[in-house]
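Format notes (please read before filing issues)

Several people have asked whether sequences and structure tokens are stored in separate files. They are not. Every record keeps both together, in the order shown below: the sequence lines, then the token lines. Line labels are part of the format and must not be stripped during preprocessing.
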Amino acid sequence: MNILRAAGVCAATVAMTYAQGSPLAFEVASIKPAAPPTDGRIMFRMNSDNGRINFSNVSLMNLITAACKIKEHQVEGPGWLNSARYDVTATFPAGATKEQVPAMLQVLLAERFKLKLHHETKVMPAYELMAAKGGAKLTAAEKEGNLRMMMGPRGRHMTGVATMARLAETLSNALDRPVVDMTGLPGSYEIDLEWSGDDMPRGMRGLGPGGPGGPGGPGETRPHDENADAPSIFTALQAKLGLRLEAKKTTVEMYMIDNIEKAPSEN
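Then the structure lines:
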């Protein structure tokens, strides 16, 4: 195995740790196809604690974005990156921490799924988050808290306390392009938004917390009610928070997949 290629899947976040030059890798790892859903819903979970990871129903897109600490819109690869699902359990080596999980995931992806990619910069559509005409309508909070997204009967529901930068980052996960905070507003604010979810990329519609970007909480996919009358994210942002999204173009670092295998090598 080419150690540098295995450890360097995402060069910006690689952590070479051992004095002998070996990449940090899980001690033992098991990857199995996830059982198909029985009720039309897909729940996925990405937990890392007590010296091990326990991921259920995760896609390769989930694993790649968690390993590289990037967003889904930065990855270009086969369409099944979002549809093929796996259960992954693995044990940390002695002395490893939860913060080193992304580096260990990189090695896992290179060894077991034969992932190879390269980086390119690409000018692509983006949104700038800014105050709408008439000014922002935000309620200040003392400090930043959890910001959760979930699927409801009318579409998406985001609730919690966040800075404007965190809101922009979370919207980047939910929309089909990056969102850049241009509000200039400091501090944290209460967020309560509900929208149809139709503005989300196909692979992300219906996914709850714990999606691309790293291990987190549970996620869920439910059939969207096409008759729901929830507003678009653009209307909801302006009506509830006095914010707007303005379309722009920006340069984004892209992760272009050169090779990846759908079936992992044997445990």
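For reference, the curators noted about this record: Residues 147 and 166 are 8 Å apart (CA to CA). Confidence is low (pLDDT under 50) at residues 1-7, 12-20, 201-227.
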